[in-house]
Amino acid sequence: MTTYAVTGATGHLGRIVVAELLARGVPATDVVALVRTPEKATDLGVPVRRADYSDPTTLPAALAGVDVLLLVSGNELGKRAAQHTAVIEAATAAGVRRVGYTSIAAADRSANPLAPEHKATEEALQASGLPFTLLRDNWYLENYTAQLPQYLAQGEVLGLDGTARIGAATRADMAGAIAATLLDDAAAGATYELSGPPVTLSELAAAITDVTGTKVAYRDVTAGELSAVLRGAGLDDATAGFVVSLEESVARGDLDVRSDDLERLLGRPATTLVDALRAA
Ligand SMILES: NC(=O)c1ccc[n+]([C@@H]2O[C@H](COP(=O)([O-])OP(=O)(O)OC[C@H]3O[C@@H](n4cnc5c(N)ncnc54)[C@H](OP(=O)(O)O)[C@@H]3O)[C@@H](O)[C@H]2O)c1
């Protein structure tokens, strides 16, 4: 018997990974949801334990008896390298056999502003001596499909370079691929680039037009113009600056990672942009 544990199991990705493990035949009693907020975990259908990356005292009991751990990266920017390192240290102490970690596309060489914390976590795994599997997630397609109402209301998609390619994929596809690696001990030591077929923001606008029948155009703007639009929509200066830095990363091609890892792990083609828009 192997006991699987998934952190961040109350988050969007983590809860789909739990569901994928169950769908692939793992008994619910062999899956543990490790969560910061147990009240949010009542519908997961598996045992729940409290695990707060920022409170290492919660981690030994949470990880007791766990064989394979998925560490879903946290969402508190700036704190994550220390938080993830605490989980890795606790996993080592608890005798976890293998850790999967949800990193970022091309973490070891990406200039994306989110990459340094992921790179630091990858290095902490390397230093731990634990067998590990790197799951380098590209952008979620949901980053775009969730904005469908705004795109339709504004009639446009704004970006810094409409030709830059983004290897985005749905969370569900990523979760399926991740679950496959958790179930396969041969994934120890492997690095997977979980990228879908690349799309551009121009193609996003065209696909929205096709799927909805409402004309949505792509428009190139400068970083300064984008910042002004975001601040006009109510974002504070720091948040607007951060969002612009992410768009600069897209424009530079940091998310243009080509890999068939996702589709190989899924054993089928990735969900297309058009299908993701239809579902949204
Ligand atoms: N590839 C992309 O496009 C993209 C986009 C956004 C985020 N991400 C990264 O991918 C991760 C998973 O994505 P997601 O969509 O599932 O994000 P999400 O819905 O925000 O889920 C994040 C999960 O991390 C948990 N968490 C945060 N801080 C924690 C802590 N101190 N201790 C324990 N758990 C903690 C949250 O717990 P609570 O439920 O208690 O809040 C939540 O369950 C994100 O956390 C982020 O690192 C990637």
SSE topology sketch:
Layout: E1 4-7, H1 12-23, E2 31-35, E3 48-50, H2 59-63, E4 68-71, H3 80-94, E5 98-104, H4 115-128, E6 132-137, H5 142-145, H6 148-154, E7 156-159, H7 171-182, E8 191-194, H8 201-212, E9 217-220, H9 223-232, H10 237-252, H11 261-266, H12 273-279
Parallel strand pairs: 1-2, 1-4, 2-3, 4-5, 5-6, 6-8, 7-9
Structure description:
With 280 residues, the protein is α/β, with parallel strands linked by helices. Helices cover 43% and strands 15% of the residues. The strands form 2 sheets. Strands 3-2-1-4-5-6-8 form a 7-stranded parallel β-sheet, with helices on both faces. A two-stranded parallel ribbon has the order 7-9. Helix 3 runs parallel beside helix 4 (115-128), helix 8 crosses helix 12 (273-279) and helix 9 (223-232) packs antiparallel against helix 10 (237-252). The mean pLDDT is 98. The structure holds NADP nicotinamide-adenine-dinucleotide phosphate (NAP). Residues 7-8, 10-14, 36-37, 40, 51-54, 72-76, 83, 102, 137, 139-140, 143 line the site of NADP nicotinamide-adenine-dinucleotide phosphate.
Order of helices and strands: EHEEHEHEHEHHEHEHEHHHH
Largest sheet: 7 strands, parallel
**Which range best describes the helical content: under 10%, 10-25%, 25-40%, 40-55%, 55-70% or over 70%?**
40-55%
Report how far the terminal alpha carbons are from each other: 38 Å
Any low-confidence stretches, pLDDT <50, length ≥5? none
Number of helices: 12
The small-molecule ligands in this entry are: NADP nicotinamide-adenine-dinucleotide phosphate
Q: Output the strand order for the largest sheet.
A: 3-2-1-4-5-6-8
Query: On the 0-100 scale, what is the average pLDDT?
Result: 98
| Total strands | 9
Shape, per Cα inertia axes: globular
How much of the sequence is in beta strands?
Answer: 5-15%
The class by helix and strand makeup works out as: alpha/beta
Rounded radius of gyration (Å): 19 Å
